[in-house]
Amino acid sequence: MHRYVVSQFDGSAFVVIDQTEKREVCVCSNYDDWEDAEERAVKIAKLLNGVSE
What we know:
Helix content is 30%, strand content 38%. The protein has 1 helix and 3 strands, in the order βββα. The protein has a 3-stranded antiparallel sheet, with helices on one face. 15% of the residues are buried.
């Protein structure tokens, strides 16, 4: 099980959650012409999981 996971907040926002501390770490949302919020959140979670392992 990974410590950091991604959860969809609404249609265009994704939250990186620390499951150990039970808190939000980061919120990514789509803006302007950029629609990569989920991709950015997943990258952040992967990086954080790599550091915490």
